Amino acid sequence: MENKGIKYEFTAKVWNYSSTGGTCGWYIACLPKEMSKEIRENLKFLEEGWGRLKMTAKIGNSQWATAIWFDTKLQTYLLPIKAEIRKKEKIETDKDVKIMIRI
User: Is 24 among the domain residues?
Assistant: First the structure.
């Protein structure tokens, strides 16, 4: 992972968001609220449409370029986790996952 940007580390449960109520849809990890508050206060100027903030994420041995989105209802950033990463790192819903991001 490049050493550019500000590094944050946290542990979060992965959950499934589905607009249809099924098991398809987005798999999400929420950043801790205090961390999200700090990021928003200091880096909001980097946000693009819909509160999108580009960054790099790393879970286990997998890293990828992605973005987090600020959810105004939850008052936190949401990190979507791609199927490729979930498969590679054996990530299941409701399991704690250690995550490192760089913004």
Answer: yes
Q: What is the pLDDT along the chain (103 residues), one digit of tens a residue?
A: 556 789 999 999 999 977 555 556 789 999 999 999 999 999 999 999 888 999 999 999 999 999 999 999 999 999 999 999 999 999 999 999 999 999 9
Q: Which residue range is the domain that position 53 belongs to?
A: 7-102
Residue 1 lies in a domain: no
Total count of domains within the chain: 1
HEC readout, 3-59: CCCCEEEEEEEEEEECCCCCCCCEEEEECCHHHHHHHHHHHHHHCEHHHEEEEEEEE
pTM: 0.87
